[in-house]
Amino acid sequence: MNKPIYMDYAATTYTKPEVLEEMIPYFTEFYGNPSSVYSISRETKKALDKARMRVAKAINADPNEIYFTGGGSEADNWAIKGIAFAHQNKGNHIITTKIEHHAVLHACEYLEKHGFEVTYLDVDDEGVIRIEDLKNAIKENTILVTIMMANNEIGSIQAVKEIGEICRERKIFFHTDAVQAVGHIPVDVKEMNIDLLSLAAHKFYGPKGVGALYIKKGIKIHNLVHGGGQEKNRRAGTENVAGIVGLGKAIELAVDNMEEHNKTLTYLRDKLMNGLLEIPHTRLNGPKGEKRLPGNVNVCFRFIEGESVLLMLDAMGICASSGSACTSGSLDPSHVLLSIGLPHEIAHGSLRLSLGDGTTEEEVDYVLKTVPSIVQRLRDMSPLYDDFMNKGEN
Ligand SMILES: *Cc1c(COP(=O)(O)O)cnc(C)c1O
Question: Could you name the active-site residues (predicted)?
Fold first, then answer.
């Protein structure tokens, strides 16, 4: 194997050459500060406007509702803390789910230490919230609902439009972390009744460290980053011009090619998923079909550790992940897998393979040839498996 087989697109993607090409002049030629008056700055200012238009178009927003950030985590933190602090006179209750990205969960935990009360909704065994649970959780003092559009670990897609409708009816702000959704599945902030939405370029073939928060016109929100007057006085700091240009180009490409790209991706995903599920004592995590992101595969192999599978896959030139990238290094199993009801020992044996633009059928076939023997080798060394085989325990 020379070139690695990359199956971790949900962690990050490569930057497309067309995207990089549009970015380069903004490092070398048009490097002027967009706030300055001379002509090289007029070019950078125009570039920001163009990128803002492209992002707005991709999610059916207005360009002046788009605010550039330093990525998905910043957008999530801004939305949640900014709404909480700006509206605490109306109430201090926030609703989210147990399967959010840590950028949302940890922002909510921070608010709990500062006088807010947070309800963490359960999900069903496929990783989808029950709409009834949301309705029941809403109280007089609820000011914000923050629920992710699509989950980064198990690919489950929430009924965002319905959630948005409920929030709109009750005049509660609705934020969605759409970092895994934008550029991958159709997103329309108007149709889906979304007030605030987070996105990040590096999840759809743009550069890392740049993202955006959509804030519906007229919404009062506190700043997260204080300083200069950039982004209409709402997000300080000299703009990451080249990054923003890359974001604009990447989102346009992703949305233009979505339908065709997803057909191929769904075919490859299902082939990989069904192949892996033929390995004995293997279960699928997350939903099947429509309610699942087109590029996401997540399975648990009983009796073994996901981390060991990853190391052996790496030795075979395959990049994958177990749990989420942010939790590797800790011994706790993924909070998402625990939330869908898996016991600790099974959640430990998880493997996420996320496919993307560069994935080929040959790669899927190679992975399907490689994984079963890795699983068997690890099971041969596993005392749990030994017990199971000897005693027929379950
Ligand atoms: C990657 C990701 C984030 C964080 O985005 P960064 O750009 O890495 O800060 C947040 N939410 C979800 C669902 C993600 O997948």
Answer: 326 (cysteine persulfide intermediate)
